[in-house]
């Protein structure tokens, strides 16, 4: 290989490798959002979903769901419990958690409830219980009378055991009538120990990748299966009890459960998404509904003459993220605890939308956003069929409209990823940038239980990504999708990171993404074999970059053959190199190797050093391997 180290070509944007977040597969509720109580405000499609009533005798009381829709449209339902001379153990409520509750020994748990209690006389006994009935910890709460209004009661306790699938029980003791809403339980070990925050292990997996951007909140949930279930960011901010939940679009055709119990409570809302982006050093990339519901479902559109509120949402979001604290929406951000700007530089209009209806709506959004915020880059959607005519037509149209960034999605077989390592070599330069917004190699058909994140899928993505890096002047961003999946609650495979109620592990695909993101560099440099880019010759794929800030050369090599290959890198335009280089290698002889909860790092990076003499580096690449070499340029 010839590497022209002193001929930096494409600039690799700091945003190049990012993450795509969607509340699919229990990604948010039941996943990264650490709330343990399912249906805490009784607003699910069936009010008592997730709850069961435990009652010894009919005389000990009654449980009633009350709906005050006229008074509180965002959170109309609450539960009323009438307690008649009940002793602990007579009358209770049990919450099953999302797929059970993951409980950790010696960790503090914070219980809270909004309640209305005209007169004292009731005591609540809160307990965590395992499947055998063992008590894992608990506390008692004696709520003070509230008078007319509602108050919040809080209590904490420490768990005495680690259990993957516990439940929470509340026993009622005494006499009286209590109204309850927002019944909540959070572990204390949330990310940055924020009360009501996110699961730290899951956020850490993202932070470890040092992603350049985070796209949120999806995906199809942006669109909704009809417009009434589209994502509306304004309903996801402010006090959590005022955030109006909606059914999750992923209850639709892919749901494996007989009852639709997957909702978006928006405890993780747009403020928290921006905060998460800031925490992990990623540029925020919100995607907004463009006035069209999911075209795979309903194809419902808002008439153009009624599109203004949708466009206003986009303008207001920019003000919410960046506006001065004296502005209407900037003041809301400040009130929520973040007076400083969230530095929003880009936003998406539409997800996987197409056709003339999309273009008409996109034009209205673009004109309004650019008129008020000319510096904001707009991500345009180009659908899911990367080889299709519709896709080409749309891309041509978008280019003629001078789209800033075009979002391409590809869920294809590993063969497609290997074959498309040159996909962007001939894309127009000096035109719209490309965002590989969702991609994942499919070992079987999408959503199948056999569709595994195996070493073959990861290796094919690593090969494809050499082409993204080489064409960084065209491709400014890329992200694997979907990001998270709960092992007991998924709707889609494959997924980058798998979790249960207590643990998370990265797939081989995760480690590929992480290695690219951690070894990004600032500029691609030419790497050729016989004057050609290396994209499949002898099943090798390669790319090179320099990091101008650390003065390093970074070479990525994919050996997709079943043979050990010796690769000689002839470096041009460099005087001297450090005496050692660092090699990070992902490898497995078995293309169908997978990581699991039991063997989470079966396919994971191994690091070693190698001696470098002169300006010629010989790197042996093992069969089926992805190697990253870093060496200091002196
Ligand atoms: O990543 C899963 C889904 O795939 C996304 O929600 C959608 O944009 C795409 O079709």
From TrEMBL:
GO molecular function: alpha-L-arabinofuranosidase activity
Any one biological process term the GO annotation gives: L-arabinose metabolic process
Similarity remark: Belongs to the glycosyl hydrolase 51 family.
The protein's name: non-reducing end alpha-L-arabinofuranosidase
Keyword DNA-binding included in the entry's annotation: no
Alpha-L-arabinofuranosidase C-terminal domain span: 437-625
Keyword set, alphabetical order: Glycoprotein, Hydrolase, Signal
EC number: 3.2.1.55
Organismal lineage: Bacteria, Pseudomonadati, Bacteroidota, Chitinophagia, Chitinophagales
Record field: catalytic activity: Hydrolysis of terminal non-reducing alpha-L-arabinofuranoside residues in alpha-L-arabinosides
